């Protein structure tokens, strides 16, 4: 026979379960993990195909290349890296290059490699002034128009220096405010934003949909160096919980310093994310 006490105890548990259920339903696993190939730059230069095979075995699905001494694809041709990646179940989704005399060639190569995005990895001209950032924003607009003609999306990747202030104005904000949000997108390096004392979530709120790409990394704030996930001070889980607000389509793991080897860190980072509920 069920007494009032057991009824209340049972109903209380059910109520608690009902409250917890929505939270459990919201938990998700990280999927479609990408990597910036600069993470394994030495390995890519030594053996591009072999390194891609190792990354595929780890589980990475999305790739972002970076210009090197051997060109935009570590010595591989655009169609070549596209086929190798495709055969391994991966996609060359983006690439880091510079806005320079070879810009149109970089666009043509990115299109040939099947990329969706082409990212300018650093400012096309130097100078921590409002005038220079205005010039760079105008250069981005022009570069983005050229990308659009090739069915590519233009993006810019930040470091830390863009968050300097001049006359009370954050220089990075000039790049966002002076460019067309439908043409010029941003690849937010979350680590560098946070290290400078800025909040990615505030940028997601102020500039919705401007950040379709991320560099996801953990950082040792004291050393200002990247580290393996869970070993720094970046709240990776919190960032992932705000993907919708960012408008992010793809993120790429990037780690530039390692305790042992780049590939070991790449595996550690992948395994960390694969286990993570957010």
UniProtKB/TrEMBL annotation:
SUPFAM superfamilies: Xylose isomerase-like. Keywords: Signal. InterPro entries: IolE/XylAMocC-like, TAT_signal, TAT_signal_bac_arc, Xyl_isomerase-like_sf, Xyl_isomerase-like_TIM-brl. The keyword Ribosomal protein does not apply. Residues 53-266 form the Xylose isomerase-like TIM barrel domain. It holds the Pfam family AP_endonuc_2. Residues 1-27 form the signal peptide. PANTHER family: HYDROXYPYRUVATE ISOMERASE (PTHR12110), INOSOSE DEHYDRATASE (PTHR12110:SF41). NCBIfam families: TAT_signal_seq (TIGR01409). This is Xylose isomerase-like TIM barrel domain-containing protein. It comes from Spirosoma radiotolerans.
């Amino acid at each position: 026979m069920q007494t009032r006490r057991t009824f209340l105890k049972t109903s209380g548990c059910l109520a608690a379960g009902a409250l917890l259920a929505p939270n459990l339903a919201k938990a998700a696993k990280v999927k479609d993990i990408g990597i910036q190939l600069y993470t394994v730059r030495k390995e890519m230069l030594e053996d591009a195909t072999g390194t891609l095979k190792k990354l595929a075995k780890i589980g990475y699905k999305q790739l972002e290349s970076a210009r090197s001494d051997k060109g935009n694809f570590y010595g591989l041709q655009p169609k070549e890296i596209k086929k190798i990646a495709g055969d391994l179940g991966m996609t060359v989704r983006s690439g880091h290059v510079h806005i320079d005399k070879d810009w149109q060639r970089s666009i043509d190569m990115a299109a040939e490699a099947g990329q969706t995005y082409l990212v300018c990895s650093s400012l096309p001209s130097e100078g921590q002034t409002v005038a220079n950032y205005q010039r760079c924003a105008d250069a981005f607009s022009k570069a983005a128009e050229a990308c659009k003609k090739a069915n590519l999306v233009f993006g810019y990747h930040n470091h830390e220096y863009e968050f300097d202030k001049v006359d009370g104005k954050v220089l990075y904000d000039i790049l966002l405010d002076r460019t067309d949000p439908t043409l010029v997108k941003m690849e937010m390096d979350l680590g560098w934003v946070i290290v400078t004392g800025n909040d990615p979530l505030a940028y997601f709120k102020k500039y919705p949909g401007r950040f379709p790409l991320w560099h996801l990394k953990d950082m040792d704030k004291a050393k200002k160096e990247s580290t393996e996930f869970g070993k720094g001070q970046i709240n990776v889980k919190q960032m992932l919980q705000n993907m919708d607000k960012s408008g992010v389509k793809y993120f790429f793991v990037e780690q530039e310093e390692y305790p042992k080897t780049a590939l070991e860190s790449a595996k550690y980072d992948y395994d960390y994310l694969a286990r993570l509920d957010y």
